[in-house]
Amino acid sequence: MGKSLSFDIAAILILTLLLISCIMRKLTSGTPNKLFLLFIFMTWLATGFDIWAVYLDNANSTNLPALLAAHSGYLLIHNFTVPVYVLFVISLTDTWHKIRKSLWIQVVLWAPVLIVMAALLINPFARTMFLVERGYQRGPWFFLIYVGVLIYLIFVIGYMIYYRDLVERSKAIAVMSYIPIGVTALLIQLVSPSTLVEMFSSAISLLLMSIGVQRPEEIMDSDTQFMKYSAYATDMARNYRSEKHVNVVMLNLGNFSSINAMMGYDFAMVVLNEVVARIRKINRAVDSKGDVYYLDRGRFRMVFAEYDRERAVKAADMLVKSLMEKADYNNLDVTLNPFVILARCPEEIPDFKTLMTFGMDFHEKTRFEGRVMKVSDAVREDIFEIQNNIDSIIENALNFKRFQVYYQPIYSTGKGRFVSAEALLRLFDPNYGFISPELLVTAAEKSGAIHRIGDYVLEEVCQFIASEEFKSLGLEYIEVNLSVTQCMRGNLAEDVLAIMEKYHVSSEKINLEITETAASHAQEVMSENLRKLTQAGVSFSLDDYGTGYSNIKRVIQLPLKIIKLDKTFVDEQDNPKMLVVLKNTVAMLKDMNMEIVVEGIETQEMLDFFTELRCDFIQGYFFSKPIPKPEFVHFIRSWS
Ligand code: C2E
Ligand code: MG
Ligand code: MG
Questions:
Q1: pLDDT digits (tens, 9 = 90+) for 507-540
Q2: Which of 118, 368, 375, 406 lies 20 to 30 Å from 201, alpha-carbon distance?
Q3: How far apart are CA 250 and CA 252, in angstroms?
């Protein structure tokens, strides 16, 4: 009885369509895609040889060379598709680094296919695999093929179970469907040898895999044709889990958000497209070895293998240089601020969560220097450890009374002497040394510890003000910082007044600093707090004026006595436009009867400049850094 070719022909059709669809959907780059294409192509070829062989068999051909070629070709190629399938599964887990390290895995991967291949190649002489002289017949060594396939299947099932966390469940099911479908086909062929469903079953599982695994829309960003945020998150999480070491080039365009806000979406897209084109060019220059992702808001990532360090270094370098070049977009010159960090992961960024939070805003925490930075340039080396332990650091500091209050003198230009000081929080941790108050305050706001810290600072200050020592210094008041969360607390006013009362400190001796961010939250609770405290005679300063969106309306509405010009104002005084802003800001605030403190004065020239402008108070390293209480007392005494 002749064998039916219908299933094989259907298989060829399905496989041809699959090949076309993969190419049209641009599923051609990246190892998994390439392996999948190879997998389809080999199945396609094997089916072709199968059709040829069956055709010859059905025609009772006596052309021995043709019969040998057709059957050997079919078995050889079919023999190779199984390890290609195994490689495809491995590529989904992205664990090549594990394979490379393990000799026995490599043996299991290559030995079966090579042994079967050798047996097939010597078969025309040895005639041990199959015979074609009197119709196609299996030889005594044919079982080797089955043993080989069995080894691969056991391996792949074990591998998938072992690395199940690295592949999404739906993808794992799609890719593993190859096995039960293949086994079913084998059983059918065993029962009914003339029904050739084996290649058809392979085509069907490839179709399932293509639907379940190869979904480009899930991965690609449509604006840039780079992979998207979610793909970056999945890939990087997997790298950390499987301990794969990589070099990550992080590019955050510092001013992209403001370009978007000021020039609008269309213009921002023009800029984005130009940046994308340059990144592509750079990736080509390093042999396209980087996986490129576009996260959002001008943030890109290129990920290189551990051994591609040199390429990563080159790409990072080229990114900074190329993106800093001024470019003409729609007849407008735009200069970008490409913040680029090259990080070894996990060596320099220990865990996935830290990688994601660090990458979000490192460009806001450093100055733009136009060069490739290391993680440690953007943050201190042990920052991630500190951040991960910050809650217990704060708890311990509170329990073991490790917090301290330092004072930074404030000079009155009108009176020619020091009239006050700002109280600033300090923590020297036994394990990590100095930890910046900004870090502490942000974390303490989240955990709620800020209220206990705030109470501690105010008590220290009140105790100081109540002392005989303080009275001898001739200072008028002390400034104490309040964070946003503190201002939002219902009983802030009562707490503050209770502490002041405890030490018999009169209200004009305390000035509370609130920030612009707090002011912009101006809601009921906060206004009520401010009202109660003002009524009790406590005055307020607006801290860091000029850093946020300086909302003049709030400045008018809030009961403020003092405005503190932020250091950024001071830093830019040689910019002629800034000079205009400064002069007019000072004039405006003066007309509103506000007092002005200038922060961050470091040189005599700066001092002269702002004294000339008739700013009332000066604070900065020029006079003194924040110093511990005894030194501060000594400092003020030595000046008077
Ligand atoms: P801030 O209130 O604006 O404090 C002024 C900061 O500028 C201080 O940083 C001070 O050391 C620094 N500074 C003063 N003069 C100069 C100068 O001439 N040059 C330079 N480069 N810097 C100068 P510090 O102590 O690191 O405090 C940072 C921020 O942490 C403070 O900014 C404040 O927002 C917050 N903070 C500090 N202590 C407390 C506190 O007790 N409670 C709350 N809620 N926040 C605090
Ligand atoms: Mg302050
Ligand atoms: Mg300030």
A1: 999 999 998 776 666 578 888 999 999 999 999 9
A2: 118
A3: 7
